[in-house]
Design a protein that fits this description.
Layout lengths: L2 E5 L2 E3 L5 E8 L7 E7 L6 E6 L5 E3 L7 E6 L4 E6 L8 E9 L4 E4 L3 E5 L2
Parallel strand pairs: 2-11
Antiparallel strand pairs: 1-3, 3-8, 4-5, 4-9, 5-6, 7-8, 9-10, 9-11
């Protein structure tokens, strides 16, 4: 079964840190661009960070300098390290695996991140 599974979400105080994981089964993440998206209540889903198959990264302006996306191909997993968290980071976080040439696109089920005191 081809799937992505996110984990690592939870409740954290402002200024705290969390690391999200996105693990793939049934396919190899190495050949995919991986994006972390988030969706807050009443808002559209937005791209937070992306890492290409060659390791290039890009970030939304709102998280630049606080979030870091990385990949471990040996573990078939992509991570999102989130530091200096703010209440406005509260959302459901989703990972997406995209391979343009093959027309493949997979989404995980999402993990809740809540930043609150």
């Amino acid at each position: 079964q081809l799937q992505l599974v996110e984990s690592g979400g939870g409740l954290v105080q402002p200024g705290g840190s969390l690391t999200l994981s996105c693990a793939a089964s049934g396919f190899t993440l190495e050949y995919y661009a991986i994006g972390w998206f988030r969706q807050a209540p009443g808002k559209q889903r937005e791209l937070v960070a992306v890492i290409t198959s060659t390791g290039r990264t890009n970030y939304a302006q709102s998280v630049k300098g606080r979030f870091t996306i990385s990949r471990d191909n040996a573990k078939n997993t992509v991570y999102l390290q989130m530091n200096s968290l703010k209440p406005e980071d509260t959302a459901v976080y989703y990972c997406n695996a995209h391979q343009e040439a093959w027309g493949k696109d997979y989404w995980g089920q999402g993990t809740q991140v809540t930043v609150s005191s």
